Amino acid sequence: MKKSSLRSGLAGIALLSAAVLGGTVASPAAAAPDGAGIDVYVVPEARATAVEAYWTPERMRAAIPADVLASDNRALTDRKDIIKGKPVISGSPQAASTEIISPTAVREAPVATIGKVFFTLGGADYVCSGNVVSAPNRSTVSTAGHCVNEGGGAYASRWTFVPAYENGRAPYGQWSATAFAAPTQWTASGDISYDAAFVRIAPRNGATLQQTVGATPVAFNQARGLVYEAFGYPAAAPFTGETLQSCYGRATADPFGQSLSQGIPCDMTGGSSGGPWFLSSGAQNSVNSFGYNTVANRMFGPYFGSVVQGSYTAAANG
Q1: Cβ pair 127, 55 in contact under 8 A
Q2: Which residue, 89, 135, 252, 254, could crosslink 219 as a Cys pair with Cβ 3.0–4.6 Å?
Q3: What is the pTM (predicted TM-score) of this model?
Q4: Is the pLDDT of residue 229 over 60?
């Protein structure tokens, strides 16, 4: 089938202007919304050193898909808390695509803004996915909450982002974290409805991450039930984690009502956690979070409401 034209517009976006839906204007530098519970963890300098040397190709290949870190989490907060705030997009969205692609995972060419995430937690090495989002500091990556914090527990160490990874190649090198921002609903109690995080990234060779690879817009407080294209690096069988994959479909509610997350048709496996969900406009509006063993080929992602927006603001303005 024909693939969406979205990919062709992703790699070159590096914009900081504010665009809006519903006629509401908001700056990406605005303060966190009222009631947003945000936890910001600054990576100790001693833990930030020697990260690149640690992540050898052998360790990257052996890293465990991090979906296991979210397997026992559930929703703890009601709907009125998660859906709050005015619709806003930080960055400039692209023209909407009307092309249709397969709802199951298909291999993609590398995209400069999307990459693999590697980190250590509880003595084990894990792998996730992430995406560079437009931010005032030009140094912000979006991922899943369980890709930075185990959910009501410790934060990750040796955290690094490898944009445009493919078959062991890292054309833009490794980028280390300096701070994590995530909803306290995730970091304090592991509420799966808030399984999202934003990571502040250190410069490399005098340049920011966004200057180097570009960035995509990010949207908050949008309608539910929209159509998404999701990307990630699934590593569990039948995938290898060595190539970028994508899925496409319309979001529907959690069939069990156990979370406020939405699901799209997608057979990506562990390792794709944290990979971006894009609206047809090109703005990111969720991340790969979890799946149910009893619901085949469906990936769930958190609703990007005002609390997740607050996490973005905390990371993006540091």
Answers
A1: no
A2: 89
A3: 0.83
A4: yes
